[in-house]
Write a structure and sequence with these properties.
85 residues; mainly alpha; 4 helices; globular
């Protein structure tokens, strides 16, 4: 369960799993706005005030405020598919 004011994990997963080629322009725009809004909310919310599930969710979606690459990004970097942040 995500924290109040944050995008639900179900919405994030649904947006991530649906291929871009099947999304309408409105869906693309909505995903971008929701993602930026959730990222901003993650940045302003101190880690100490986040629930355990929110911290885990932020780690996997790279929405955390400690300047570390997400686990997904680390995996991509390890196999040469990332930008080695």
């Amino acid at each position: 369960m995500s924290d109040t004011g944050r995008q639900s994990f179900t919405d994030k997963a649904t947006a991530a799993l649906k291929p871009d080629s099947e999304k309408s322009t409105t869906e693309h725009f909505g995903d971008k706005i929701k993602g930026k809004s959730d990222s901003a909310a993650s940045t302003v919310q101190p880690q100490s005030e986040k629930s355990t599930t929110q911290r885990v969710g932020d780690t996997f979606s790279s929405n955390n405020n400690n300047d570390q690459p997400s686990l997904t990004q680390k995996a991509k970097n390890a196999v040469g598919m990332g930008n080695n942040q």
